[in-house]
Predict the 3D structure of the following.
Amino acid sequence: MSTKTILERVTLTLAASALALTASFGQLQAQNLFAPIAQVGESLITEFEVEQRILFLQILGAQGGTRDQVIQELIRDRLRISATQQIGITLSEGELQSGLSEFAARAEQTAEEFVETLESAGVARETLRDFVATQLIWRDFIRARFGARVQISEREVDRAVASTTSSTGIEVLISEIIIPAPAELAAEVLEQAEVIAQSKTQAEFSDYARRFSATASRENGGKLPWTSLSDLPPVLRPLLLALAPSEVTSPLPIPDAVALFQMRDIRETSTAAPRYSAIEYAAYYIAGGRTPEALARAQSVMRQVDRCDDLYGVARDEPEANLDRGSLPPSELPTDIAVELAKLDPGEFSTALTRSNGTTLVLLMLCGRTPQLEEDEEIDRDAVAAQLRNQRLNAFSENLLNQMAAETTIVVFE
């Protein structure tokens, strides 16, 4: 998201936020904003924190602002804080101020101006400070713990550059396994995924897909048709290009699941693959996860809908959070959503994903793809290497958080 977009969204949100806060004041008075919403080990998450984070994300225009998503992310923050406190990592006031200034600069403001903007919309100063401090400390922790294990080779940079600049198209023939991983089973799922990652043959991987995968491709042993590399998530492209036929990626954490991909074949095409500046999609959330009732509801909706705009009619009398309409650059799409969208043509659906620890089914629809205008640009190899390094570190981070969640007593009270 551009700094201009953030600034415009902050400005436009202020009036609406003030009105909303005024209208709901009586209701908030009747609530106990410090009532516990969740408990992570010995630490409590309050209603006040949930309300503050929701408003904060709304003002930023960020993804992941539904109530369930916010609660889950606050739980993850508690896990981050617990891990860093155990080994004594701290953040100086100077480091925090530097982080606040960097964050505020995205909205073309100073740190103090940005704090005042948020406060005028009802977001407490401490909400921003806690958010930035947690992210900074966790980033340093992950770099210190896993940095030495992430070495990016020149070959990997070459392949990543080739995947974005090649004058010909690159298509891959891959197989997938997506294993549901609710928090209470995260450690077991990750252990099983590590076993699957050692698969030596395509037949072995396909057998695992039929046994463990939650996607429709499981019936075909996880095999996907030839797919343009440019349609796949940027985070996945260099990982696939580094594989020889029959090799498997390391387990990749995605929301509520772990993913693995096996390379079956790769080829170049005579026509350059299209590049996209934005992917437009809609996600309609159905309570019940992968229960027969939820899947039947998804089938009913699909019969009513021909285009993404039709989903507004379906969700008209439902909570606003039930329908998420997004248009994002490919690099900003969540990995699991990007993988599913790569399989779809505009107007097609997927029911492979879940949210809220498997209790919510995601009916995902591809609305369209916006082609990217061709521009001559010089490739910064150091920036490519840094991006690959961050992607690997993020994978380590997700694996560690999943493991910690499985080992920690977590209770959500609502």
The first strand starts at residue 36 and ends at 40. The mean pLDDT is 83. The domain at 154-273+386-407 is CATH 3.10.50.40 (Chitinase A; domain 3). DSSP finds 15 helices and eleven strands in the chain.
